[in-house]
């Protein structure tokens, strides 16, 4: 089985699932963090809250900054001025003590970890995702219009292995 399909199985067949679509703007990460806190607390997995919120924050920030539509006229929703509106879709899922986090954006470019200089104020997000997640991967969306980034966080006793 392909690695992304294996990760995606938590998203596609969960016990619990919630999805939020956000405009790709500077408010998206904060809204995504609040949504994540609310969902995980409702599902009783508060012990995974810090890891999941960090991952969601970094992935939605990356999607907002780097996940824009390359070109126009791709059938995306239009804003007031007729320009396409870039969106970020966050899906959270819970299956057997594993929290699945999926962030979709409109750029087909895969996320690439950067080497940040000592004094840089950005460029460490994917390193934080790698440290906080049990595993993560990215792939193009099925329609070819963007990508999906999936990360998993599991309880230590969880039977599912990444």
Describe the protein:
The protein has four helices and five strands. It is globular. It has a single domain, classed as Histidine kinase-like ATPase, C-terminal domain (Heat Shock Protein 90), CATH 3.30.565. Helix content is 31%, strand content 24%. It is an alpha+beta fold. The longest helix is centred in the middle third of the chain and has 18 residues, at 49-66. A five-stranded antiparallel sheet has the order 1-2-3-5-4, sandwiched between helices. This is Anti-sigma regulatory factor (Ser/Thr protein kinase). Residues 25-138 form the Histidine kinase/HSP90-like ATPase domain. GO terms for molecular function: protein serine/threonine kinase activity.
Give the number of DSSP strands.
5
Q: How many separate helices?
A: 4
Q: What strand order characterises the main sheet? A: 1-2-3-5-4
- CA distance, first residue to last residue: 12 Å
Question: For the report, how would you describe the main beta sheet?
Answer: 5 strands, antiparallel
* Shape label: globular
* Overall SS class: alpha+beta
Q: What is the typical, i.e. mean, pLDDT? A: 84
DSSP strand (E) fraction? 15-25%
Pfam family, one: HATPase_c_2
Protein name: Anti-sigma regulatory factor (Ser/Thr protein kinase)
GO molecular function: protein serine/threonine kinase activity
Organism: Streptomyces echinatus
